[in-house]
Specification:
- The complex is a heterodimer.
- By secondary structure, chain A is an alpha/beta fold.
- Chain A has ten helices and ten strands.
- By secondary structure, chain B is an alpha/beta fold.
- A five-stranded parallel beta sheet of chain B has the order 4-3-5-6-7, with helices on both faces. In chain B, strands 23-24-25-27-26 form a five-stranded mixed beta sheet, sandwiched between helices.
- In chain B, helix 8 packs across helix 9, helix 12 packs across helix 13 and helix 12 packs across helix 14.
- Classes of the chains: A alpha/beta, B alpha/beta.
- Chains A and B meet through helix 5 and helix 7 of A and loops of B.
């Protein structure tokens, strides 16, 4: 794994988030470099998903700031985050179950479509060309993730592992600068995990997408990530390369445990 | 230039010659298609000729010369098919390698063929070649089609296909006459391809074929079934297999029909439906998988649909094959069949992707009677053929209207077949192999002094002159009265019953044939459940009188079949027993490819064999078994033996 040499893409500074009396995050700071794969790990309830939600604007931190591409943001919501190039997948798959794989991935292109509803309904001229261009992009992603055989299958009929892959496809269809993956391998068998790892590495390599992922499988995390942030009870207790994290006593006590 | 080819067929006795002829005569017709990014992309014959020209020059620019071998590894892709022709244009020999072979298996072929140049599909294959590179120092150039994931590979051996082609275009500009000179130098008796045998017996051997031989085989096939440029095939079987090479390469180049490459190996069924090939080839296992898929979906259909399906399948079973073979059929049946064709058979053929199939072939293994009848009864002209890699699969083929379940048809035009004293089928065919690569000993062993190839299969001609293959010649024996005993033939017939998983027949130098039977736990378990027959496990199930009754019924049918054949009537199964344990590769009773090791089984269960021939009704056995965790245990059982009546000859099972 080569060390990322890029500029800071995203920086999280002293972020604190609480829901009523519950402190989800307190005083968390870290940065994500361009082109790297960054993991957020920690025990259940450590605030990992909350952190992702802060990054893509679902939650607004009471304190601290998030800056993306050097720009600190005031008000943020998921739509604006998506416009800026942040895409994500969810811990519980959030696809349109009744729609085909192809249509689901097409929705990932939504923000890039210029034509209005009427033009799209008539399907003429420039809109036709636009649709064809989008479809081609989507087909490239289908090819990339090797899901040609289920192109026309309704998502609800697919096994879990493939649904996860479709969700990744939809996120990639938006051509994101930063991709947030919330437990991309949860519930998968070994083979599916290996496939997913390969796709994440390939996406990072081929499209230059910067990736932030939450994952519980330490083997996976240590294997594919450049750097790791460790959260525990909403606080950052570790930050560094996989080797540094493995040797970090605080992290071992809180999360990794002794031998494995 | 729209003038017909002035050189006539003269230039068309090599594969490159054939390609150039199609490019001249039917340059605008589609030669090959591939589904990419969800769309079928096509190339015309003249475009293909152009691509091959660039590729040929590219290989020449990289130093590939006459006499070298080019390894081709990957799924069925147009660019890989073009690589065959490009290698041939330079007088080289394409050597397709099974794309799913692991690196170790590839190493043998690459070393044996002295490969310096390889064209591969993608990263997966590149990784395998790089893995064996240190042990295969001859390999100097690896060209890859799909660059994905290979951006950071810095090995000097690697070159992208596009760069190879561009180098070729440049080379071509520098020496415009090179390509024509190269193609002109290719001789019909040059080796055109080297196909490795699967190597079930010993190490794989490279079978060398000549242009003349393989083109003769393809010409014979094309004339036999009347293939035209408008025909379509889907190429989805491994390119390293002689069947695909004959169908998707040689026949396509001879007849000039269109080859379609599927999008990926997982999409074959969908692609089949979209293309609707007119000509189709598959081993029996694929026909079986297709049927299973349909039957599973049928079980989920509504009652009305299921009722219709079963009614009309009954009609088809009664008269479908008769109609297909233009035999006299009752008018009422004809009308019912026509109705069924609209309601059931037509849609079914469409689902299977066989709406337009004019000719379909199967071969390579025995096909089950129910399976065979199913496809033929719904109007698919499924026929059998027989041949080996060494004979270019040009030996026997069933002509239209003369199709029988257990024969493979008469010899094809120009083929001579004789049956040796031990029952072995020996073949002289225009598509005979030139030699085994670097194995003069093996070549001498398998070709007789008078030019017959020794197939190693045992068989005979039936009354109508159709060849019937029964077993490997080495396994065929004689009963005590001298009549023919072909264990595998009987075992295969038994195994076609879903309730029988394995069977082992004995009879060589004995009075009669006796058999061990392994029941299929799932099938017999379901059967028992439906009849509310309680059982505790495999052992219990095998000892049930009802199960013996069921198996006896199956064997009776096989015996009736055997009785109908004068040569095999003597080898009816007279006694059998149901084994108390499944034959298992872990206990060395089966090979890893699930073939029964007959000798070993006979030795291990010698007491049971003696009991079968000694007239006992029950025999106690204690067998050592290995569990999956490596522990050993003893399995004891009392096994019952049952007698069967001899079936009168002349009666045929339904």
């Amino acid at each position: 794994m080569s060390a990322p040499a890029g500029n800071v893409l995203l920086s999280v500074d002293n972020v604190a988030l609480s829901f009523g009396g519950v402190r989800a995050l307190s005083d968390v700071s870290f940065d994500v470099l361009e082109g790297e794969i960054r993991a957020i790990i920690g025990p259940n309830g450590a605030g990992k998903s909350s952190m992702l939600n802060v990054i893509n604007g679902v939650y607004h931190p009471q304190q601290g700031s998030v800056s993306f591409r050097g720009e600190a943001r005031r008000r943020m919501d998921p739509h604006r985050a998506a416009m800026q190039g942040i895409a994500r997948t969810f811990q519980n798959i959030a696809l349109f179950k009744g729609m085909s794989v192809l249509d689901n991935i097409m929705t990932g292109r939504n923000l890039k479509m210029r034509a209005n509803l009427l033009q799209q309904a008539l399907y003429v001229g420039s809109n036709r060309r636009e649709e064809i261009a989008h479809r081609e992009k989507v087909e490239r992603i289908i090819d990339f993730l090797q899901i040609e055989h289920i192109r026309k299958t309704p998502v609800g009929r697919l096994p879990y592992g493939l649904q996860k892959r479709v969700e990744l496809a939809r996120a990639l269809a938006a051509e994101p600068v930063l991709l947030l993956l919330d437990e991309p391998m949860a519930g998968m068998n070994v083979e599916e995990k290996q496939d997913m790892c390969r796709f994440i590495l390939d996406a990072n390599d081929e499209f230059g997408t910067t990736i932030v992922l939450i994952e519980h499988d330490m083997g996976v995390v240590m294997d594919i990530c450049n750097r790791i942030v460790v959260l525990d009870y909403g606080r950052k207790i570790g930050d560094g390369t996989p080797d540094e994290i493995r040797a970090n006593q605080v992290v071992i006590d809180a999360y990794l445990g002794v031998s494995h | 230039m729209a003038r017909p080819d002035p050189s006539g067929d003269g230039s068309a006795d090599t594969f490159p010659g054939l390609l150039l002829r199609h490019a001249r005569v039917q340059g605008r017709r589609t030669a090959i298609r591939e589904k990419d990014l969800g769309i079928w992309q096509s190339w015309t014959w003249s475009q293909v000729a152009n691509e091959v020209r660039a590729l040929t020059c590219g290989l020449a620019a990289h130093g590939f010369r006459k006499g070298m071998n080019l390894a081709i590894i990957g799924d069925n892709r147009p660019r890989l098919y073009w690589s065959f022709t490009a290698a041939q244009c330079l007088g080289g020999v394409p050597v397709p390698v099974y794309q799913d072979a692991v690196a170790e298996e590839m190493l043998f072929v690459l070393e044996n063929a002295g490969i310096e140049y390889a064209i591969v599909e993608d990263q997966e294959q590149v990784d395998k070649l790089l893995e064996i590179l240190p042990r295969c120092p001859t390999l100097k150039h690896i060209f890859f089609d799909d660059p994905r994931g290979l951006r950071h590979y810095a090995q000097p051996q690697l070159t992208a296909y596009d760069r190879l082609r561009n180098a070729g275009r440049e080379f071509d500009r520098g020496d415009p006459g090179f390509f024509e000179r190269a193609v002109g130098a290719v001789r019909p008796d040059d080796t055109c391809v080297m196909l490795y045998t699967s190597g079930t017996t010993g190490k794989p051997k490279g079978v060398c074929h000549t242009h003349a031989g393989f083109i003769a085989a393809a010409r014979g096939d094309v004339a036999f079934d009347g293939f035209k440029p408008s025909d379509e095939v889907l190429s989805y079987l491994p390119m390293a297999w002689v069947g695909d090479h004959l169908f998707s390469y040689a026949q396509a180049l001879v007849a000039g029909f269109t080859v379609n490459c599927p999008e990926s190996s997982e999409t074959v069924l969908t692609d089949l439906r979209e293309i609707g090939p007119t000509y189709y080839f598959a081993p029996p296992r694929i026909f079986e998988n297709l049927l299973t898929t349909v039957m599973i979906r049928m079980d989920d259909a509504s009652r009305v649909k299921r009722g219709l399906f079963h009614f009309f399948m009954g009609v088809a079973k009664r008269c479908g094959t008769g109609i297909l073979d233009h035999k006299p059929v009752r008018l009422t049946d004809r009308m019912l069949y026509a109705l069924g064709n609209i309601l059931i058979y037509g849609p079914l053929r469409n689902i299977l992707g066989m709406s337009r199939v004019r000719v379909a072939y199967t071969g390579g293994a025995a096909i089950g009677p129910d399976l065979y009848r199913f496809y033929r009864s719904i109007g698919i002209n499924l026929k059998q053929l027989y041949g080996q890699t060494e004979t270019g699969v040009y030996v026997c083929k069933q002509p239209d209207g003369r199709v029988k379940l257990d024969t493979v048809g008469p010899p094809q035009p120009g083929v001579q077949i004789r049956i040796a004293g031990n029952g072995e089928v020996q073949v002289k065919t225009p598509a005979m192999l030139k030699e085994y690569y670097k194995r003069p000993d093996a070549t001498a062993e398998s070709i007789s002094a008078d030019g017959y190839f020794l197939t190693g299969d045992a068989g005979f001609f039936d009354a109508e002159g159709d060849l019937k293959i029964i077993d490997r010649a080495a396994d065929v024996g004689r009963l005590a009265d001298g009549s023919l005993f072909a264990p595998q033939y009987i075992e295969n017939k038994l195994k076609f019953f879903p309730h029988i998983k394995e069977a082992v027949c004995f009879g060589d130098r004995r009075e009669s044939v006796c058999a061990f039977v392994n029941i299929d736990l799932q099938a017999v378990g379901n059967w028992a459940e439906k009849r509310r027959l309680a059982y505790t496990g495999y052992l219990d199930l095998t000892s049930r009188p009802e199960v013996y009754e069921l198996i006896a019924g199956c064997i009776d049918q096989v015996n009736a079949d055997l009785a109908a054949d004068p040569q095999l009537a003597g080898s009816q199964v007279r006694r059998f027993l149901v084994l108390h344990k499944e034959l298992d590769a872990d206990d060395d009773e089966l090979t890893r490819t699930r073939k029964v090791r007959r000798g070993f089984v006979a030795q291990k269960y010698a007491t049971l064999v003696e009991a079968l021939y000694g007239g006992k009704d029950v025999q106690h056995v204690a067998t050592e078994v290995k569990f999956e965790d490596g522990r050993r245990g003893i399995l004891e059982a009392d096994i019952r033996i049952r007698d069967l009546a001899r079936q009168a000859s002349g009666r045929r099972a339904a």
